[in-house]
UniProtKB/TrEMBL annotation:
PANTHER family (UniProt xref): (2E,6E)-FARNESYL DIPHOSPHATE SYNTHASE (PTHR12001:SF71), GERANYLGERANYL PYROPHOSPHATE SYNTHASE (PTHR12001)
SUPFAM superfamilies, A to Z: Terpenoid synthases
MF GO annotations: metal ion binding; prenyltransferase activity
Pfam families: polyprenyl_synt
Species per Swiss-Prot/TrEMBL record: Streptomyces marincola
GO annotation terms (biological process): isoprenoid biosynthetic process
Protein family per UniProt: Belongs to the FPP/GGPP synthase family.
Identification of the protein by name: Dimethylallyltranstransferase
């Protein structure tokens, strides 16, 4: 994919600022959990290793905290105003990761074993639930009318996120999913929380509904661009960068954008792909786990031949353009708009 014109070298600094400002409050919130949930959560966040020793593992891209702080600045507030929103959104995001890893059977995240693999399924469920509860405590802690507004947005985004996960699981055993259905699912599963992150700091800073809704629209389109790129990486990503196995989404029978776009196309490759995926949907997981690398490679090649890869790359760029356009609907300070645009650039050109 060609790199967008607005890529900004300041993005790493924005991400680091998000981590630095949110980290103390995030650690404090996690520290409230009863043992052993506090240490299991600390392992998930990369703060300790499986034996409880301090670690400095990859803790994620920190896009959502960065967005929450920029959102506050878009409303003319100090970035610190967005910290409760940054922490709350990060807690909800990680609640979903803990549960998703268990439901999907993923054994690796961020280049190390997932929580359910190390500490067992029960702990993955409990800690995920606990992080969700903490998110609500954190966002309501300021006790202001704006905090209540922010909490309502967070609750709505969380429900949509769960809706999206339910749709994603249901699609795995369906023979056919439309592009529109896939975009709706991804808008829920990924777009909703990024939309919340992009507006929650502004709401905490007293923004009016017009500004909050434009920032939310920016985040919604950004989330769809993010997921389109994630879908590409889920099939063709380098495991050394993604931390996941080769063909990871194909192994899970995910009806991601490249897959559904390829099936929607016409021609021999689309027909052969559809025949294979129809047969796959009827197999047990044990039968599917016996597939060798060549069988996944065949499916990936058919998706590409049918045009699914090119279409998804184009969709990522279309969603990027829509996200940037949303920033011009309202009066956002120029430097803040530039940084939000730079974050969108980063999402579209990332490799992991």
């Amino acid at each position: 994919m060609n790199q967008p014109a607005h890529t900004d070298g300041a993005v790493p600094a924005l991400l680091e600022r998000g981590r630095a400002l949110a980290a103390p409050a995030l650690r404090e919130a996690v520290g409230r959990l009863a043992p052993p949930m506090n240490t299991v959560a600390a392992y998930h966040f990369g703060w300790i290793d499986a034996d409880g020793r301090p670690a400095a593992s990859d803790s994620g891209k920190a896009i959502r905290p960065a967005l929450a702080l920029l959102s506050a600045e878009a409303a003319g507030a100090a970035p610190e105003t967005g910290v409760p929103g940054a922490v709350a959104v990060e807690l909800v995001h990680n609640f979903s990761l803990l549960h998703d890893d268990l439901m999907d059977g993923d054994e690796q995240r961020r280049h190390r074993d997932t929580v359910w693999k190390v500490h067992g399924p029960a702990q993955a469920i409990l800690v995920g639930d606990a992080l969700f509860a903490l998110a609500n405590e954190v966002i309501l802690a300021p006790g202001t009318a704006d905090a209540a507004r922010a909490a309502r947005r967070l609750a709505a985004a969380s429900r949509r996120l769960v809706d999206g996960q339910a749709q994603d699981i249901a699609f795995e055993h369906r023979e056919h999913v439309t592009v529109a259905e896939c975009l709706e699912m991804e808008g829920n599963k990924t777009g909703a929380l990024l939309a919340c992150a992009a507006s929650i700091g502004a709401i905490l800073g007293g923004a009016d509904d017009a500004l909050a809704e434009s920032l939310e629209l920016y985040g919604q389109h950004l989330g769809l661009a993010f997921q389109a790129v994630d879908d590409l990486l889920g099939i063709w990503g380098d495991p050394r960068s993604t931390g996941k196995r080769t063909w990871s989404d194909l192994r899970q029978r995910k009806k991601s954008l490249p897959v559904v776009a390829a099936q929607a196309a016409r021609g021999p490759a689309a027909e052969r792909l559809t025949a294979l995926l129809t047969a796959d949907a009827k197999k047990t997981q044990e039968e599917f786990d016996d597939f060798d690398e060549a069988e996944f490679a065949t499916r990936a090649a058919l998706i590409e031949e049918a045009g699914g890869r090119v279409w998804t790359e184009g969709e990522a760029r279309r969603q990027y353009d829509a996200a940037v356009a949303a920033l011009h609907r309202v009066d956002v300070p120029g430097p803040v708009r530039d940084r939000l645009t730079a974050l969108a650039d980063f999402v579209v050109v990332r490799q992991k």
